[in-house]
Amino acid sequence: MTAVRIAFTPGEPAGIGPDLAVHLAQQDWPVELVVVADPELLQQRAELLGLPLHIIPYSQQNPARRHTAGSLTVCSVPLAKPAIPQQLDDANSSYVIATLKRAGEGCMHGEFDALVTGPVHKGIINQAGISFSGHTEFFAELSNTPRVVMMLATEGLRVALVTTHLPLSQVPAAITRERVEETLEIIAHDMNAKWGIEQPRIFVCGLNPHAGEQGHLGLEEIEHISPALENLRNKGLQVSGPYPADTIFQPHYLANADVIVAMYHDQGLPVLKYKGFGNAINITLGLPFIRTSVDHGTALDRAGTHNIDDSSALLALRTAIDMVNR
Ligand SMILES: NC(=O)C1=CN([C@@H]2O[C@H](COP(=O)(O)OP(=O)(O)OC[C@H]3O[C@@H](n4cnc5c(N)ncnc54)[C@H](O)[C@@H]3O)[C@@H](O)[C@H]2O)C=CC1
Ligand SMILES: NCC(=O)COP(=O)(O)O
């Protein structure tokens, strides 16, 4: 029987992504792990870290084999320039995009059963003239999916977002009834399909302080969020809110929720990271393939050092394996 095949993209070559790939390789896995990256980059990082790494060139034709500690199957995508840990170089931005494209297309064609992503540096990709706001948006576009949802999860808390990488000044206009409804429907669908929660209890934040204080502190709750929730309740979804964001994250409320929905990135994610940074993962809901990711960024200051925490990468891979098996 052939094994499940999971792709890992290390992301920014000057960051800790290559280190994470080397760390992941140090233990056995019940799946084939295929790292989509430059093999020399991985070999050099392993040498720097003093860890063993026997690279096996990937071939789609070979049957998938379970990963054994110390080896690593690598689907080669060449760097434009040798990468120096901790030093961003926009010459390698197109390399980063090429790895995401190769891995994402592999998932869509059924070559890979899931994708786990390491951190990319959004700034340096844009500096190279490539418009890029995040993996979430990139894979939505690659797969022609009109709406996907970013959700971060740690023990005891899941936070999903209505908007993702949007300047704060553009958030209010993006909070439309349609967008809120589509987001919540995707969450309800995927919580059921991917986690087996039949009727997920979804608690929704307002946008404004005190959820708009009956319209005295903003109208988005009255004009968009509440009508969306009402409509979804009529369709049988267990959605409640809009709640003041500074109230809903109290443990007393969280105990009754399967997912908290925040209106924007920094409304929900600081709480999630305060609770579980390092032991959390990022999952894209609504995509036609499974994608999990680390909960942190490129941590440039730690690339090539022994001072990194690989817990989120390990958890992202374990979660992807569980999701494939389910
Ligand atoms: N999934 C992704 O691709 C993500 C990418 N980013 C990108 O990362 C870049 C840097 O973002 P920052 O805000 O500086 O966040 P960051 O997460 O890279 O770093 C914040 C702090 O946490 C530390 N840190 C992060 N991960 C760590 C780990 N695994 N082990 C030990 N220490 C760790 C860093 O050293 C730093 O002190 C940005 O360009 C951002 O766009 C940020 C979040 C997610
Ligand atoms: N803060 C999480 C984050 O920005 C992750 O973005 P993405 O690259 O996974 O879309």
From TrEMBL:
- Give the binding site residues for substrate: H135, T136, K273, N282, R291
> What catalytic activity is recorded?
4-(phosphooxy)-L-threonine + NAD(+) = 3-amino-2-oxopropyl phosphate + CO2 + NADH
The record's section on Pfam families has: PdxA
One GO biological-process annotation of the entry reads: pyridoxal phosphate biosynthetic process
A single GO cellular-component term on record: cytoplasm
List its EC numbers.
1.1.1.262
Say which enzyme class the record assigns.
oxidoreductase
**Record has Cell membrane as a keyword:** no
Q: Where does a divalent metal cation bind?
A: H165, H210, H265
Per its UniProt record, the required cofactor names are:
Zn(2+); Mg(2+); Co(2+)
The job of this chain, per UniProt, is described as: Catalyzes the NAD(P)-dependent oxidation of 4-(phosphooxy)-L-threonine (HTP) into 2-amino-3-oxo-4-(phosphooxy)butyric acid which spontaneously decarboxylates to form 3-amino-2-oxopropyl phosphate (AHAP).
The family note in this entry says: Belongs to the PdxA family.
Q: What else is known?
A: The active site is located at the dimer interface.
- This protein is called what? 4-hydroxythreonine-4-phosphate dehydrogenase
Organism name: Pseudidiomarina gelatinasegens
